[in-house]
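#struct-help
A.M.: can someone run this one for me? Single chain, 372 residues.
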Amino acid sequence: MIHSLFLINSSGDIFLEKHWKSVVSRSVCDYFFEAQERATEAENVPPVIPTPHHYLLSVYRHKIFFVAVIQTEVPPLFVIEFLHRVVDTFQDYFGVCSELVIKDNVVVVYEVLEEMLDNGFPLATESNILKELIKPPTILRTVVNTITGSTITAEIQGVIDACVKLTGMPDLTLSFMNPRLLDDVSFHPCVRFKRWESERILSFIPPDGNFRLLSYHVSAQNLVAIPVYVKHNISFRDSSSLGRFEITVGPKQTMGKTIEGVIVTSQMPKGVLNMSLTPSQGTHTFDPVTKLLSWDVGKINPQKLPSLKGTMSLQAGASKPDENPTINLQFKIQQLAISGLKVNRLDMYGEKYKPFKGIKYMTKAGKFQVRT
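D.P.: on it. Structure tokens below:
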């Protein structure tokens, strides 16, 4: 039914997105923006916009476009009615439905949306039922949500590396399912830039061997999803020589792909003398000299999330640390490009033989840091 929901303000900025089934790139909204430009008024944007691979259905209320993305034909009024129900629910929960209020209550918003759809199909859409499942925000809850936080900054540095072993002078063309995603791009000299500008197709005569075809940058404005989350409970007590340390790592919107090679590190405060921890999987070390904690997790099993729990021994009489430590993650995901970039096809011209073609996607953590 409904794959994704995008909330767009009157300036054309996507300020919230939610995915239920598979992650849909923000670039799909380019079709909506084109229709928005053609419309003289916001209310005149067509409620149903077909695209090559999706349908976009939207409602405009409180100066916000609520845009649902679906992949198969469904009764449009059914989806539009659901979108109106989302708006009504936000208004009931928060008193008003505005961009500022939604951003201020983003944790509750995601919880509500998670309950309203189950695998893309409407589940709980009545406010009285939702309020039994998810309590409306209070001052205390707002403070807690602010502390547990959302994404502060995020960006993707992507590359396409090629390995070409072809005889003769083959002329190649490479096209993408969603080329609009690529904005900040740097090309190998062999790429014909004019064709990319006009058609968004890579046309080139490749050199032999390994080379970097292109590199690209996706800012937080176009970020698709963050694939890992960390739950943490790190506490130091006043007038106590012990502290509590608990972290759990889990997958988030990885489209069923396995997160592997997970390594968690944390630079502990100087006052921590030692740590007594028990991992549910993997191995860990703590260096009492450098105060560096390292946990080699390995693969994440979504059915049994890895955790590391225990106590910290502190210097007797020392005041508790001013700040909690940050948590750093390393990981990789095979056959997934978290940017949402996908190759459509690769064609060869100028030679008569049939080449072997293959593609491998890979996501790796760069600097992935969680503030506790």
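A.M.: thanks! DSSP finds seven helices and 23 strands in the chain.
D.P.: also worth noting: The CA atoms of residues 93 and 136 lie 6 Å apart.
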